[in-house]
Amino acid sequence: MSELLIIWCMLLAQLMLGVAMACTLYRIIFGPRAQDRVLALDALYVSAMLMLLTFGIRTANTIYFEAALVIAVLGFVSTIAFAKFMMRGEVIE
């Protein structure tokens, strides 16, 4: 019973993450300002990372965890670069 419950909960979590990713894609496309688009991109990479983690838990494959770690690091760096670009107009000083 508990294994079946975990499988259904993981499936539900993946469906909710898919809906969250669709909402952030809508905000990236139709965002009124550039700041909204950057925040939506930040939320999109977090959702993608969590989606990979749920795939890794369901399949018990470690490659998904490594890919999620790479996405987390690159997403953090890109968010900092976007914020710096929007604040000063250039990334490298």
UniProtKB/TrEMBL annotation:
Recorded topology in the membrane: Multi-pass membrane protein
InterPro entries (UniProt xref): MrpF/PhaF-like
Transmembrane parts of this sequence: 6-26, 38-57, 63-83
Keyword DNA damage part of the UniProt annotation: no
Main localization category: membrane
Gene Ontology cellular-component annotations: plasma membrane
A molecular function GO annotation: sodium:proton antiporter activity
Keywords: Antiport, Cell membrane, Ion transport, Membrane, Transmembrane, Transmembrane helix, Transport
Family, similarity comment: Belongs to the CPA3 antiporters (TC 2.A.63) subunit F family.
Protein name stated in the entry: K+/H+ antiporter subunit F
Organism: Xaviernesmea oryzae
